[in-house]
Amino acid sequence: MNEVIKCIKERRSIRNFLDKKIPKEIIEEIIEAGKYAPSAEDRQPWKFIVVTKKELIQELSNEIKKQIKRILDKKRKWKKKFKELEDERLVLFLKAIANSKEDVIFYNAPLVIFIICEDEIFNDESCACCAQNMMLSAWSMGIGSCWIGFAKFLEANEEVMERLEIPEGHHISACIVFGYPAKVPKATIRKPTFIKWF
Ligand SMILES: Cc1cc2nc3c(=O)[nH]c(=O)nc-3n(C[C@H](O)[C@H](O)[C@H](O)COP(=O)(O)O)c2cc1C
């Protein structure tokens, strides 16, 4: 199988990492691969916030749990914005995350990268392409990753946004954890998809 397709098909989200740092040159290589993604109008809107400090990662993880708790405490209000909160199973899952003592947000990863961009049309799509380039290039070098959608909850705390030096008019477009895999899940079964040929 062609190497690129092999990498695409074999990549899995990794949630168990070895306690081993990723060398700076490798982090730079992953970011560089991200920058080669396509982007609307070739705007290349991505900016990167690289976090390797363990204490800061822990702090951000706790902050996300705090935000999830805040939403669950005012479920009635938030249901208007997030219809998903009507789903009791999801609510139970969120409660378990918010109350966990473990780092169930960033999975004790040694590296968290936030991809931020200005609030402009198609910037998120461009950043998602960048994120996928980063995850695939990491995988090709034996490094696992996982996109952390929960990181979006950090946007609710202005102080944290300032602490991460995310400029005004910008938002967190993607957040990915990286690390050397301690456990790799089995290959996924991809669902049959609707494909219409003309
Ligand atoms: C937009 C997005 C948000 C995600 N958020 C999370 C997350 O917060 N936590 C997590 O563990 N996985 C998260 N994931 C990873 C998915 O759960 C994972 O990609 C999916 O289960 C398929 O598994 P695979 O990546 O191994 O193919 C996210 C993935 C995407 C694309």
* N/C terminus separation: 28 Å
Global mean pLDDT: 95
Q: List the secondary-structure elements in sequence, H or E.
A: HHEHHHEHEHE
Structural class, by secondary structure, is: alpha+beta
- Per CATH, the superfamily is NADH Oxidase
The main pleated sheet reads as:
4 strands, antiparallel
Please describe the structure with a list of short key phrases separated by commas or semicolons.
14% strand; binds flavin mononucleotide; four-stranded antiparallel sheet; 4 strands; single chain; NADH Oxidase; globular; 198 residues; alpha+beta
Q: Would you write up a description of this structure?
A:
By secondary structure, the protein is of the alpha+beta class. The protein has one domain (14-179): NADH Oxidase, CATH 3.40.109.10. It has 7 helices and 4 strands. The radius of gyration is 18 Å and the shape is globular. The model has no long low-confidence stretch (mean pLDDT 95). Residues 12-13, 15, 146-150, 188 line the site of flavin mononucleotide. Flavin mononucleotide (FMN) binds at residues 12-13, 15, 146-150, 188.
Q: What order do the helices and strands come in, and which of them pair?
A:
Elements: H1 3-10, H2 24-35, E1 47-51, H3 54-73, H4 75-79, H5 88-99, E2 111-118, H6 123-140, E3 144-147, H7 158-163, E4 170-179
Antiparallel strand pairs: 1-2, 2-4, 3-4
The structure holds flavin mononucleotide.
